Amino acid sequence: MKVICPKCSQVRDVTGMAPDSVVECECGQAFRVPQMAQPAPPPPIGPGGSMSSNIPPYSPAETQPPYQPSYGAPSMSGALPTPGHAVASIILGILSFMCCGIFMSIPGLILGYKARSMIDDNPGAYGGRGAATAGIVINWISLVLFVLVMIFAVAGGLLDTLGSL
């Protein structure tokens, strides 16, 4: 049986103790073990015949804290973590459009393919296959555009050189 301290409201387990024996709480309050378990009084009835919403229909001894997974445990929402390689691939793909072209798109491709293989090898451990694929696609587009710009630049330079002869 569990008894609630009248001073600090801490729940004390008095199972197996003799009725009317004195129990001292950690707060210093002494109280007696009841003769028998008394049923909880019915919840108060508010206006309109419904239970009052500010008083729970259970005692504090029956409450339990909500379940919280330990640090590093998989989440209960079902969402799997995305590998950092996939995110880095997308970032490098975006940067390759703005500057550095080939110097960002090739490492972005490597990271994107690495992330996708990690996801495919461990389907229950990683999610984010779409992010890895997006990084791969962005980096390929950037690489092709870079190569085309270089081809046109070289071709334009050759035409200028031939035209001045």
Structure description:
The chain is mainly alpha-helical. The protein folds into two domains: 1-36, no CATH class; 84-163. The chain has three helices and four strands. It has helices spanning 84-98, 102-121, 129-163; strands spanning 2-4, 11-13, 22-24, 30-32. It has a two-stranded antiparallel sheet. The protein has a two-stranded antiparallel ribbon with strand order 3-4. A hairpin with a 5-residue loop joins β3 and β4 (30-32). α1 runs antiparallel to α2 (102-121), α1 packs parallel to α3 (129-163) and α2 (102-121) packs antiparallel against α3. The longest helix is centred in the last third of the chain and has 35 residues, at 129-163. The termini are far apart.
Short characterization:
The chain has 165 residues and is mainly alpha-helical.
List the helices and strands and how they pair.
Elements: E1 2-4, E2 11-13, E3 22-24, E4 30-32, H1 84-98, H2 102-121, H3 129-163
Antiparallel strand pairs: 1-2, 3-4
Helix pairs in contact: 1-2, 1-3, 2-3
What's the helix count? 3
Low-pLDDT ranges: none
The gross shape turns out to be: rod-shaped
Q: Label the structural class.
A: mainly alpha
Query: Count the strands?
Result: 4
* Rg (C-alpha, Å): 35 Å
Beta content comes to 5-15%
On the 0 to 100 scale, the average pLDDT is 79
Spatially, the strands of the biggest sheet line up as 1-2
Helical coverage, percent range:
40-55%
- Domain tally: 2
Biggest sheet overview: 2 strands, antiparallel
Written as H for each helix and E for each strand, in order along the chain, the element string is EEEEHHH
Spatial gap, N to C terminus? 106 Å
